[in-house]
Amino acid sequence: MTSTLTNRTDFLDRIRVVLTALVILHHTAIMFGGSGGWYFRMETDSKLERILFTLFASVNQAFFMGFFFLLAGYFSAMSYDKKGSMRFIWDRLLRLGLPILFYGFVLGPFTLALARIHDHKPFFDTWASLIILQTFQIGPLWFAAALLFFSMVYLLVRLALGTRKLTANLVPTHLVLLLAALITGAGAFALRLWVPVGQELWLMQIGYFSSYIVLFAGGCVFARSRWLEHIDGTMAKRWLLVSLLTIPSLFIYAILAGAFQGAPFETNGGWSLPTLAYAFWEPFVAWGIILSMLWRFRVAQNPSPRWRNWAPRAFAAYIIHPPVVVTLGLLLSDWPIPHSVKFLVAGSAAVVLSFAIAWPILAIPGMRRIL
């Protein structure tokens, strides 16, 4: 393995670890009062905590799952070039299909039964009944299902092209990134007229899929030039400035519109200016964070060797984190401490425990082939 490939793998794997940790913290924040859906929620009476949790969750939502799709598209293109169509599809079915089935029919109902303990429902009876009824609870494995679908579309495109190259060695300019952000915002607004944020269709929140589609496609298109491995600091810093200026803008708009005094401020969908603003706010927040992370992680000097232990566990930790988060929430639910403190305790513990539990799982023969 060359040093170039090693460096590429290292820094992108480190990013996957951070993104996985953010997913865990994101769901923990929702559990303790942030906006969004989760198995088990405890509302906070503090307006400040609600605002902080919602800000944290909103910024995360703007970029972290889209970042996963960008990386997935990037490596999908490389995988197809290396393996060909048959091995590519078999690998996708194995690595995505099996976890979807396991989570949907086993771990998802398990997590749902855990959450119902708070409502004084017996855990084992509830879990058994859900299993018997063949309840399918996809939870965060919607990502794997969407990625499996995107992979099938990519496969069809490559098969249709035959022996022709999918792309040249393309590298996006600032103008291309700006156009991608505008297309993403317009697409998000259009999708949310059909399926507002917070509503599911086909077990997924389609309202967020504009950025997922654009970023997955971008990962595929720019894989041949290995652009993610060569983003320069100048471009990253300029777009990070855009992100930092954009983040407070939506909340300033909400304050000026009287949202915190109870005035209507609907951002989830429909023909409204707040919905339009939110749709375009997301990509202009996301692009700078994504580019700056790609640049900073690549140029980081002497990263800790511990990253090598965490990186292979990232997908397994992603899969198993829901019952971990819910269990910690149940344990802390009656503690007479602020929800912000509960978030710090449960969030940090959930990250560590999810990655720790992933280690013995991956030690099971054959698991590394799947996870």
From TrEMBL:
Q: Which residues cross the membrane?
A: 17-39, 51-75, 96-118, 138-161, 173-194, 206-227, 239-263, 275-295, 315-337, 343-364
Tell me the keywords, alphabetical order.
Acyltransferase, Membrane, Transferase, Transmembrane, Transmembrane helix
**InterPro entries given for it?**
Acyl_transf_3_dom, Glucan_succinyl_AcylTrfase
- Transmembrane helix as a keyword of this entry, yes or no, is yes
On whether Thylakoid is a keyword of this UniProt record, the answer is no
Segments forming a coiled coil = none
Q: Which domain of life is it from?
A: Bacteria
The record ties this protein, via Pfam families, to: Acyl_transf_3
Q: Which GO terms describe its molecular function?
A: acyltransferase activity, transferring groups other than amino-acyl groups
> Where's the Acyltransferase domain?
11-361
Return the protein name. Answer: Acyltransferase
Record the organism.
Sapientia aquatica
